[in-house]
Design a protein that fits this description.
The complex is a heterodimer of chains A (603) and B (170). Chain A has 603 residues and is an alpha+beta fold. Chain A folds into 2 domains: 8-217, Beta-galactosidase, Chain A, domain 5; 227-598, Glycosyltransferase (Alpha/alpha barrel). Chain A has a 15-stranded antiparallel beta sheet that branches. In chain A, helix 8 (408-426) runs antiparallel to helix 9. The relative contact order of chain A is 0.10. Chain B is mainly alpha-helical and 170 residues long. Helices cover 65% and strands 0% of the residues of chain B. Chain B has helices at residues 10-33, 41-46, 53-82, 87-112, 143-167. In chain B, 47% of the residues are buried. Classes of the chains: A alpha+beta (603), B mainly alpha (170). The interface between A and B is medium-sized, with 35 and 28 residues.
């Protein structure tokens, strides 16, 4: 059952590239949506104690140590009690191919006695559809148990005796050294169920899952600073990829609050295009070119429904109807209400997404990839939209609700879009034809506007908005995006002002307090700190870059995971967890440091 | 006489089948262009044979148009067996065909298509083609409607040709 003292960073992530589960330090699966990331939850104990959980934990007092098995997201939790030690291995099974009979999804938990004896309590309490739908519990004698709702079923098989208690299953065991127990929770929708085998076959599925991840991780090419953190970030990004379409969700959770007890709670189980360019760069930078290409395929083809325009956010299949809804029955994480599903940001205009998608395509081409005719046509269409739209105010990268503004960074990303299309044209990867002159003219016009109105001479800095007086952290990307040299005096002064105004305890906020119209204190934003590291590395300030990188890495949880934000005072993870954007930032910052140190990408 | 009492000859049937296929393909492609759906049946057919997107479209379009053309003969035989030669009956047959496509044929694709991912395959990215999902709505919520419309146009066109042919003075 969800414990009100738990921190967001107390959770670990397991995933199968379709969905993901969050497991607490004390062995409770408190978040799992089935059959995919943005489907309704089956376990949502993280958002409300009565919204479903699956816990395995010692009956008496215990200490916990945990880690991921090497090069995998398979979680190992060691429970140490006065009487002995047990370990629990948690994984969402991945088996390639259709030949073995297997369920649609399977959560496999293996309990092994390591030393002495430990009394364990097991509790399985699914509460489907965010605890809105009751499940019928039925026993299949000699096989296991099943929870049914609608055309969906959750089947429980175990060599532990489980008893029905109200709408849950309970079990108690005394786990001695050498003993092994397995619990398989399998999910099926609309098809005849498959009961996964237990015993040695369950162990084989577990081993195959480990092998699958280790095979994937073999492509990893980075061997520089904080190698383990960078690999963990890559594994986390892979877990947030939806393999049926190639999409990458921002986070596997909804409504983990940006401020505990407040209402800044959003659903991040969708795909934000603002993450595209940097994500592709990160994946390619550490050796996962095929994954980057699959993501670009999704970016270009799943967004066809709105082409030649792009929306801020899409679902895993590229659909845009993400109607926002509040779930009144859930208390929220530590009473942070409301819990929302869907995301109203899909209605916003965010001009920077054009630059992000085109940047992603350019990164693929730079790494040796090719664009086919339909992709070239799509990219040119996006360029035409940029020429038409860039003068408009928008909601900006941070999706600040309320009136649209003339964000400087949005203009810069429109510049990036046109600049990269012109570069692809010049290198022969794309033929712009008569569009070249138009794109060149509009690109140069954007520079004029940014220099005239996006730079405030009184501050000596670029500003968050045209004719503005504030700074935002994404201005630090101006040099890595190629808009301005990192040592240019205008950029140097902007960098200094951003650090002065937004840096707290070695971590960076995305903007100044109150800039978004909210009353909450702004926490440091995970990826912004890594942008500062990148900027420092590009400017040759290596000692400062490494210090800040170390500081940010010290705020990861014990498993190397980051949320969206970091509390600058306590280092606690805040917001949806884990957050792809933050892990993308970590990878790119590490690559930037190594590149600056060696002059080339590491390894 | 090839089709019941319609007196249509083989050349007429070939021509009408082709025109109906072109009309249906136009509806489906237009629904893609207007952003109702991302489904492209020629692309799904073509990727059976090649992973190259451009080649897949060409191969798929040739096979799809040929298939649609040949399928026209089944419709003609069906009209003859029932003895009804009207546009509305053709549209009705097209709708039933469309429902079959959405409910039975497309959901089967992930299990037979060599490049399509499915709920039951692993997570390796060599299978990159998105599965259609229920009523092919993974390709957009407008997909069922545009598919049914395309099939109704196909059947309706075939029925209309026979209807007009019957009404024409001989």
């Amino acid at each position: 059952m969800a414990n009100s003292n738990r921190e967001i960073g107390d959770y670990g992530l397991i995933g199968d590239c379709r969905t993901a589960a969050l497991i607490s330090r004390d062995g409770s699966v408190d978040w799992l949506c089935l059959p995919h990331f943005s489907a309704p939850s089956v376990f949502a104990g993280i958002l409300d104690a009565s919204a479903g959980h699956f816990s395995i934990r010692p009956t008496g007092p215990f200490r916990v140590r945990r880690r991921y098995l090497e090069n995998t997201p398979v979680l190992e939790t060691l429970f140490e009690t006065a009487g002995g030690t047990v370990r629990v291995l948690d994984a969402l099974a991945i088996l390639d191919g259709l030949k073995p009979m297997k369920p649609m999804r399977e959560l496999l938990r293996i309990v092994e006695g390591c030393a002495g004896e430990v009394d364990l309590t097991i509790e399985i309490a699914p509460r489907p559809d965010y605890a809105r739908r009751p499940a019928r519990l039925r026993e299949f004698k000699g096989i296991g148990w099943a929870f049914h709702w609608g055309n969906e079923s959750l089947f429980i098989r175990s060599n532990i005796a489980l008893d029905k208690a109200a709408s849950s299953l309970h079990g108690h065991i005394r786990c001695a050294a050498g003993a092994k127990y397995r619990i398989s929770v399998s999910y099926t929708r609309g098809d005849p169920a498959i009961f996964p085998s237990l015993g040695a076959e369950a162990d084989l599925r577990h081993e195959k899952t480990i092998s699958w991840w280790r095979d994937w991780a073999r492509q990893f090419t980075y061997c520089g600073l904080h190698k383990e953190m960078v690999l963990r970030s890559a594994l986390t990004l892979k877990q947030l990829t939806y393999s049926l379409s190639g999409a990458l969700v921002a986070a596997p959770t909804t409504s983990l609050p940006e401020a505990i007890g407040h209402d800044l709670n959003w659903d991040y189980r969708y795909c934000w295009l603002r993450d595209a360019g940097l994500t592709v760069q990160a994946l390619i930078g550490v050796g996962f070119a095929d994954d980057a290409r699959a993501y670009l395929d999704w970016l270009l083809h799943a967004t066809r429904l709105t082409w030649p325009e792009l929306r801020v956010v899409y679902d895993i299949y590229g659909r845009q109807s993400l109607k926002e809804e509040e779930l009144g029955q859930l208390q929220g994480f530590r009473n942070s209400r409301p819990v929302r599903i869907g995301n109203g940001a899909y209605r916003q205009l965010q001009l920077d997404v054009y630059g992000d998608v085109i940047l992603a395509a350019e990164a693929i081409v730079s790494a040796g990839g090719k664009l086919d005719a339909s992709e070239m046509r799509m990219l040119k269409g996006l360029g035409k939209t940029v020429c038409r739209e860039w003068r408009k105010p928008d909601s900006g990268m941070w999706e600040i609700r309320g009136a649209r503004r003339q964000y400087t960074f949005s203009k810069i990303m429109c510049w990036v879009a046109l600049d990269r299309l012109l570069k692809l044209h010049a290198a022969g990867h794309l033929s712009l034809g008569p569009l070249e002159a138009q794109f060149r003219h509009e690109r140069d016009r954007i520079v004029e506007i940014v220099e005239q109105r996006g730079f405030n001479p009184a501050l000596g800095s670029y500003t968050s908005e045209l004719d503005g007086g504030h700074v935002v952290a994404n201005l630090l990307l101006m040099s890595s995006l190629g808009y301005i040299a990192p040592t240019d005096p205008h950029f140097s002064d902007t960098f200094a002002l951003v650090m002065q105004r937004l840096c707290r305890n070695g971590l960076l906020c995305r903007y100044e307090p109150g800039y978004d119209g909210g009353k909450n204190r702004e926490s440091s934003f995970g990826i912004c700190t890594f942008w500062a590291v990148e900027a420092m590395a590009a400017r040759g300030e290596m000692a400062a870059a490494e210090t800040m990188f170390d500081r940010a890495c010290s705020c990861a949880n014990d498993l190397g995971l980051f949320g969206e934000e970091i509390d600058a005072e306590t280092c606690a993870a805040i917001g949806n967890f884990p957050q792809a954007f933050t892990h993308v930032g970590l990878i790119n910052a590490a690559l930037a440091i190594e590149r600056a140190k060696s002059g080339t990408a590491p390894c | 006489m090839l089709v019941g009492s319609s007196n249509a000859n083989f050349g007429d049937l070939v021509l009408w089948g082709l025109i109906a296929t072109v009309a249906m393909t136009s509806v489906l492609q237009a629904s893609q262009g207007w952003g109702f759906s991302r489904m492209s049946l020629p692309f799904l057919v073509g990727t059976f044979f090649t992973a190259d997107r451009g080649k897949a479209m060409i191969v798929g379009m040739v096979l799809y148009v040929t298939g649609g053309w040949l399928f026209g003969f089944l419709y003609f035989f069906f009209f003859a067996s029932v003895g009804i030669y009207t546009w509305w009956f053709g549209a009705l047959a097209g709708l039933v065909h469309g429902i079959f496509l959405l409910v039975c044929a497309l959901p089967l694709l992930p299990f037979v298509h060599p490049r399509m991912a499915s709920e039951y395959h692993g997570a390796t990215i060599r299978r990159q083609l998105e599965p259609p999902g229920f009523l092919a709505m993974n390709y957009g919520y407008g997909t069922p409607l545009s598919t049914l419309l395309g099939q109704a146009v196909y059947g309706g066109a075939l029925g209309l040709f026979l209807q007009l042919h019957q009404a024409a003075p001989r």
